[in-house]
Amino acid sequence: MSAIIKKNKIDELSDQELERYNKHILLDEIDYHGQKSLKNKHVVLVGLGGLGSPIAYYLASSGIGKITIIDNDKVDLSNLQRQILFDVSDIGCSKVVAAKRRLLLLNPELNILPVDKKICKDSQSSIFNDCNLIIDATDNFKTRCLINKFSLANKVPLVMGAAIKFQGQIAIFRNDQDNEPCYNCLYEDVLEDDACINSGVLASLTGVIGSIQTSEVFKLLLDIGDQLNSKLLLVDIKNNEFKVIKITKDLKCKVCNNDK
Q: Is the pTM of this model over 0.85?
């Protein structure tokens, strides 16, 4: 059985939730039981920037019962070009505080756990140890490598996204399963931490990539359709090009190789 399915208390849907999630429940692939399952999931979202903003909105609007949001930044005017969780009234405010306030206005029934900390090697593993999956919506390679290690340590899937200029990437690393590639198998020892921070990005691209990431989260949690497990989706929004590449396990990977 996949590590995604954990022994949680299965809460039934209220009448209000039946109305709120009616369009999901009408989908044969989700129906009542799938929506009830989403209510009992815990997802950790790292990063509330251009990708994390649409991801957080769709997680909240679609009924994920518990959402841990992690970011240590404050809202800046330059964020508002693409970070749709925030507005000018949030400038100077902690992103996780502003995000929790906004998400609860959208869906007050949710459990939103804000973590106003930077992910580092000494981050408490307890942040991740009861989640069903981790979403990486960060903007630098060093943090992504750390998140990958936390995902492996807790044996939960990792849904990664990135966006820069007019191009984006989405991948799922099944760190809950043996013999599957991890993030480090794809990007070993990449150190260009400023590659994303110091580059431009089309505002709407972050919405596209974040929305695809969230769709993959739902597909993964509910075991729907063809998922991007051990695959990398490359998106070139400028030229309308989409390409999927299979990711293979690096048998010499310093992070996930069981024989290291």
A: yes
